[in-house]
């Protein structure tokens, strides 16, 4: 059906093995992404956002991680794909903009070689045609494509590397883009361009999974938002509902860091620190930082996502949700 999700993630769990023990970076994460929409996963650093994005395309370090759950792309379970089938899916149907563009590019290859490889692998064209197509892809994001084609990544600025990543990710017009902190550490001009590219993908009928800690970017781009804390989703809603009526105290606290939502015009720092994922208690992991905690929060296991009364599909994992909304 036309409104069926492109991507379905169910009960995704990822654990990293370290010298200090196991780290549950994703703990039962479930969501859908449909064509023509941007879903933003937002949260503090180390909340598990990037892990979820990488797990979708099996880009996790296999030697130090384990993964369970179901990831379906257009109805097909990705766990059933062979290595070659999954490799063809990456870039052709689902592409990724990684968080650190310079680190994601291969330092020993020129930009032209790396872009041309996309066309040679997926379209099976010759080296000369791949070079021509690489130049065309680069011209879509920067005027000085000829100079950049023969450059190595270390010769590029962060903004130029980001443009290259966008060109590489969108070269084959994928149905979905996973954008991991795509505007981090960018100057305002490149940031604006990147946001416009993501909007263009959505407006052309594609889907975007946006991974960010920046609620300003969420407000600008996203249709729906999923707030993540300590490896779990703690609130999901359409963006308008999430901004007007956040129910989880964590979401409320994050929004209080934005000037337009701060009560009395004063920014309020969230108390405490994110939890140690290796020693999580059975209770709500936000409990030590929460000023809304009640007795059940201290005696019962953390609640699942529960339906809220203010809007359809507004869910929050909280026994005592916020009752006061935020101003528009």
The 3D shape can be described as: globular
Unreliable parts = none
User: In DSSP terms, counting alpha (H) and pi (I) runs of 4 or more, how many helices?
Assistant: 12
What do we call the CATH homologous superfamily of the largest domain?
A: P-loop containing nucleotide triphosphate hydrolases
The portion of residues forming beta strands comes to 15-25%
Element-by-element helix/strand order = EEEHEEHEHHHHHEHEHEEHHHEE
Query: Order of strands across the biggest sheet?
Result: 6-7-8-3-9-10-12-11
In CATH, what is the class of the largest domain? Alpha Beta
Distance between the termini: 35 Å
What would CATH call the architecture of the largest domain?
Answer: 3-Layer(aba) Sandwich
Number of strands: 12
Write structural notes for this entry:
The chain has helices spanning 49-56, 83-92, 101-104, 111-123, 127-139, 145-149, 158-170, 188-203, 215-221, 239-244, 249-255, 295-299; strands at 7-18, 21-33, 38-42, 65-73, 76-77, 94-97, 176-180, 207-212, 224-229, 232-238, 306-307, 315-316. It folds into 2 domains: 7-222, 3-Layer(aba) Sandwich (Rossmann fold); 228-316, no CATH class. The chain is of the alpha/beta class and 328 residues long. An 8-stranded mixed β-sheet has the order 6-7-8-3-9-10-12-11, with helices on both faces. Strands 2-1-4-5 form a 4-stranded antiparallel β-sheet. α4 crosses α5. The two termini are 35 Å apart. The chain is built from 12 helices and 12 strands. Helix content is 33%, strand content 22%.
């Amino acid at each position: 059906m036309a409104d069926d999700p492109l991507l379905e993630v169910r009960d995704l769990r990822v654990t990293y093995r370290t010298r200090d023990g196991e780290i549950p970076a994703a703990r039962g994460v479930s969501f859908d992404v449909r064509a023509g929409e941007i879903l933003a996963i937002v949260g503090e650093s180390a909340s598990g956002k990037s892990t979820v994005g990488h797990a979708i395309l099996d880009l996790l370090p296999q030697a130090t991680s384990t993964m369970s759950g179901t990831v379906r792309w257009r109805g097909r379970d990705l766990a059933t794909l062979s290595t070659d089938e999954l490799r063809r899916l990456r870039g052709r149907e689902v592409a990724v903009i990684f968080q650190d563009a310079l680190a994601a590019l291969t330092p020993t290859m020129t930009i032209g070689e790396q872009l041309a490889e996309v066309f040679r692998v997926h379209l099976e064209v010759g080296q000369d045609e791949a070079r021509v197509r690489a130049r065309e892809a680069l011209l879509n994001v920067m005027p000085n494509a000829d100079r950049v084609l023969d450059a190595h990544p270390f010769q590029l600025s962060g903004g130029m590397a980001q443009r290259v990543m966008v060109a590489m990710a969108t070269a084959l017009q994928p149905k979905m883009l996973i954008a991991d902190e795509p505007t981090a550490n960018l100057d305002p001009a490149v940031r604006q361009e990147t946001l416009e590219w993501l909007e263009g993908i959505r407006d052309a009928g594609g889907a975007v999974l946006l991974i960010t800690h920046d609620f300003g970017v969420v407000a600008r781009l996203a249709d729906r938002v999923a707030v993540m804390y300590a490896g779990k989703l703690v609130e999901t809603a359409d963006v308008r509902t999430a901004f007007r009526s956040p129910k989880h105290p964590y979401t409320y606290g994050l929004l209080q860091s934005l000037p337009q939502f701060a009560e009395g015009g004063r920014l309020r720092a969230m108390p405490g620190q994110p939890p140690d994922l290796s020693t999580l208690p059975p209770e709500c992991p936000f409990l030590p930082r929460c000023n809304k905690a009640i007795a059940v929060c201290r005696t019962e296991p953390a609640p699942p996502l529960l339906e809220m009364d203010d809007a359809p599909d507004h869910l929050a994992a909280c026994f005592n949700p916020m009752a006061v909304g935020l101003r528009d």
